[in-house]
């Protein structure tokens, strides 16, 4: 079985990552739309100002062209609650590995890194929603099925 290539490393999303293919990786997950660098940077800065709320990681493949060197991304969103003695709950969101890099253990490494941050910032648990076809992947990452996703589009 393949292991994470040693040309790849995980790090936090940087303000200069627009040109490294961040949005193209996300396009493998769902609709993204056409987003200018200015708009992307404004959103990046907004998230940064929400100190300690958004932790977006990227996987960078040093062996790829710079413009497509981001081959994976995912976000931990940290929710502060009144419940559970002012508890903190993690949400894993927007996980995507580039199509040609799937199956090399990058996804599991990314989830492990986000789980590590969640524990470090004091989350008592982390939850996520996924397509049923990805449930086996998250089970391999230590997640268990719970509840039922509901949504309401506006
Ligand atoms: N079904 C069953 N098993 C799977 C699946 C799957 N869909 N995907 C991976 N696995 C298994 C692998 O076979 C591997 O098993 P092993 O340890 O026995 O060898 C293990 O899970 C780890 O796999 P990785 O190689 O780490 O998986 P990968 O890097 O390909 O990442 C991911 C998986 C994130 C689902 C990737 O395929 C992807 O980006 N898909 C498209 C976008 C997507 O669906 N993202 C998830 C959205 S849900 C959310 O964001 C909360």
From TrEMBL:
Q: Which residues form the signal peptide?
A: none
Q: Which SUPFAM superfamilies match?
A: Acyl-CoA N-acyltransferases (Nat)
Know the name of this protein?
A: Glucosamine 6-phosphate N-acetyltransferase
InterPro entries recorded for this chain?
A: Acyl_CoA_acyltransferase (IPR016181), GNAT_dom (IPR000182), GNPNAT1-like (IPR039143)
Q: Which organism is it from?
A: Phialocephala subalpina
Q: Name one Pfam family in it.
A: Acetyltransf_1
* Topology of the protein relative to the lipid bilayer: Peripheral membrane protein
- Per UniProt, the enzyme's principal EC class comes to transferase
Q: Could you state one GO biological process linked to this protein? A: UDP-N-acetylglucosamine biosynthetic process
**CDD domains registered for this protein in UniProt:** NAT_SF (cd04301)
Q: Is Acyltransferase included in the keywords of this UniProt record?
A: yes
Where does the record place it?
Endomembrane system; Endoplasmic reticulum membrane
What EC number(s) does this enzyme carry? 2.3.1.4
Major localization class: membrane
Give every N-acetyltransferase domain span: 8-154
Alphabetized GO MF terms: glucosamine 6-phosphate N-acetyltransferase activity
A GO cellular component annotation in the UniProt record:
endoplasmic reticulum membrane
């Amino acid at each position: 079985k393949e292991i994470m290539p040693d040309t790849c490393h995980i790090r936090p999303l940087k303000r200069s990552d627009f040109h490294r293919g961040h949005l193209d990786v996300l396009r493998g997950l769902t609709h993204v739309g056409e987003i200018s660098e200015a708009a992307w940077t404004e959103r990046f800065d907004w998230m940064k100002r929400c100190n300690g709320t958004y932790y977006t990681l990227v996987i960078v493949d040093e062996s790829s062209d710079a413009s497509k060197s981001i081959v994976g991304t995912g976000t931990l969103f940290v929710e502060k609650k009144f419940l559970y003695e002012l508890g903190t709950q993690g949400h894993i969101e927007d996980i995507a590995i580039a199509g040609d890099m799937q199956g090399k253990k990058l996804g599991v490494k990314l989830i492990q890194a986000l789980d590590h941050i969640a524990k470090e910032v004091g989350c008592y648990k982390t939850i996520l929603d996924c397509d049923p076809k990805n449930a086996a992947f998250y089970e391999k990452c230590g997640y268990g099925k719970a509840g039922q996703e509901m949504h309401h589009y506006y």
